[in-house]
Amino acid sequence: MYDLHPHLDAEVQPGTNILLTGPPLAGKRARCLDILAAGTERGEGSIIVTTKDSADRMLEQFAERTGYESRPVAVVDCVTKQQGDEVPERDRVKYASSPVDMTGIGIQLSEFLQAFYKDRNIERNRVMLHSLTTLLMYSDLQTVFRFLHVFTGRVQSVDGLGLYCIDETAHDQQTLNTLKQLFDGVVELQEQADPVVHLADA
After folding, report:
1. 52 CB burial (10 A radius; 0-12, 13-18, 19+)
2. Straight-line distance from the first to the last Cα atom of the chain, in angstroms, rounded to the nearest whole number
3. Are 186 and 153 in contact, with CB atoms under 8 Å apart?
4. Which of 10, 34, 78, 151 is 20 to 30 A from 98 in CA distance terms?
5. How far apart are CA 74 and CA 55, in angstroms?
6. Alpha helix locations (H) across the chain?
7. What pLDDT shows up at residue 202?
8. Which string of DSSP letters, residue by residue, matches 107-147?
9. Mean pLDDT of successive 10-residue segments in the chain (202 residues)?
C-alpha cells in the first residue's frame, strides 16, 4: 500500500492513479510534491512530469521538501525546449520538445520507470503529472485521453502511484467526466478547505 498521510487521508493499492482537481490556487501541485517527497524519504522513486515549469524550478521546489541529491528523483521537462533553450540531457532530467509531444513524454517516462523499477530494483515509484490542463490547451480531448490511457497503464504496470493535476475551472464538466474514467480516484481541492478524497475501492 501507498500511505498518503498526512497529505491525504488515504492508503491506496500499488498501481493506483489519482486525479487532483480544483481551482488554480487550491494547492494541487504543492500537495503532489509533498506526497512525492514523502515517498522519497522512504526510499521510493519520484518522477515529475512538468508541462508548466522547468525541471530546475520543480527540483528547487522539491528540495524545499526533502534532499534528493543521492536519491531516485527525476523530471520529464516539457517546457524548456519549447522555449528555445539549448539543454543537455542530465541523469536526472529528460526533455520532451513540448507539451504536444506526447509520444516523447511517454518515452521519457518509460525510460525513467525502467531505470528505477527494473535496473535499480526500486519497487515503489511515485509519478506526478502537472498539469493536464496544459496538455488540453495544446491538444484535443481525444488525443489527451489516449495519451493518459497509456500513461496510467505504465504507472499501473510497475505498481506505481500516479498523481495528476487539472484546473477544473478551465474545462467543461463533460471533459472532466471523460477524463475521470481513467482514474482510480479523484481528490477535490479547494482553497481554505480540507481535501475530499473519492477512491473507487473505498
Report:
1. middle
2. 13
3. no
4. 34
5. 9
6. 28-41, 55-63, 102-113, 132-138, 141-157, 173-180
7. 47
8. HHHHHHHIIIIIIS----EEEEEE-HHHHHHHS-HHHHHHH
9. 93 97 93 97 97 95 96 96 81 94 96 95 97 96 97 97 96 96 96 87 54
Pair 169, 125: CB distance under 8 Å: no
Q: At 80, which amino acid appears? A: T
User: To the nearest 10°, the Cα dihedral for 174, 180, 186, 187?
Assistant: -50
**DSSP 8-state code for residue 169:** G
Q: At what angle do helices 141-157 and 102-113 cross, to 10 degrees?
A: 10
CB 98 within 8 A of CB 83: no
Residue 15's CB is within 10 A of a number of other CB atoms, namely 17
How far is residue 180's CA from residue 174's CA, in Å, rounded to a whole number? 10
Cell matching residue 11: 492508503
Burial code (b: 16+ CB inside 10 Å, e: under 16) for 139-148 equals: beeeebbebb
